[in-house]
Every structure is written in C-alpha cells, then in structure tokens.
Amino acid sequence: MSRLGSLRSAAGGAELPAAGRGVAAGSVLGTLAAARTGGLRRPTVFVSMVFLVDATALALVPYLGGEAGAAAALFAGGAANGLGNVTILTVLQKWTPPALLGRVMSAIMLCAFGSYPLSVAVSGVLIRHIGPSLFFPAAGGLVAVAILGGLTQREFREFGARADGDARDAEASATAREERTVG
Predict the structure, then answer these.
(1) What's CA 156's distance to the chain center, in Å?
(2) CA-based R_g, the chain, Å
(3) I want to staple 136 with a disulfide (CB 3.0 to 4.6 A). Which of 61, 109, 122, 179 is the partner?
(4) Any alpha helices (H) in the chain, and if so which ranges?
(5) What is the pLDDT of residues 162-176, one digit of tens each?
(6) Does the predicted model carry a pTM greater than 0.85?
C-alpha cells in the first residue's frame, strides 16, 4: 500500500486536501475566537480544556466514517488548536518582561519548530509499525496525558491567573479605551 493509501485509510478514505481544508478553516475560526479570551480568570485551565477537545478530535479521526467525519474532527481540532495556541501565547507574552520577550519567544519557537523533524521521523516510524488508524488515538492520548499531567501542578494551573482586583483593573482599562474610541 502506498503512503498516500495509508493516510487515506486512516481517515476512512478521505482525501488529504479535504482534511487539510478542515484543519485550516478550524484554525482560522479558533484564532478569531481567541480575541474573546482576554478576560479569563484562569486562562491556563481554559486552554487545557480546549487542548483536551483537540486531543479528543485527533483521536476520533479514523473512526468517524470517512471524509466528512475526518474533516469534521480535524475542523474541531483545528479550531481548538488555534484558540488554545493564541490564548496561551498571549498570556505568556503578557507575563514576560518586555526586555525578555524576544528571547522567550525565540526559545518557544525553537522548541516548537526545532522538534518538528524529530516528531515527523517518530510519527513515520510509528505509523509504519502500528498503522495510521492506531496512530491518531495514540497521538490524542499522548496530548491528553500531557495536559492532564500539567493540570496536577498548581503552578501550571495558576499561570496567568488574575486576582479579583486584576480583573477589575483590566475591565476598567478596557472600558476607558472603549470610551476614548467612541468619544
């Protein structure tokens, strides 16, 4: 079976372009939705729940009955991924002192994109040995275990959390900006 045939069988015969469009459309939607997350009291817990939705969608890709089901799962996963990434990176950038922002973001990008070649190699080996239909639930499960493990740590859960006074201050600042824009 060709590599393309293996990938098609993982999504129940779905064409890769349809699945890619699902992820892309979902990612755009999730990114746009992230604009509404500025007032979260505990953003890391919110993002964790969003990434658990992403993990579930990923795990379900091979089991939703072909192209439409795979595209729907990948759309939901893309939306969750876009929402979660933009939200948590915004929290990280607000937390980081301005003088260190470039260094912190460079380190994050190095870790994210620098691990990509190894990730692709490991994924290829796993797909060859366990098949694509088992790879998706395994990948979703791994993401879920990592998120649930992080949630056991108080420091992780409270990262970016606002105290009641901070939330009121942020709300007052937003209202003041609105009034200046309108007036």
Answers:
(1) 16
(2) 19
(3) 61
(4) 3-10, 16-33, 43-60, 67-95, 101-114, 116-130, 132-151, 154-158, 164-182
(5) 875 555 555 655 565
(6) no
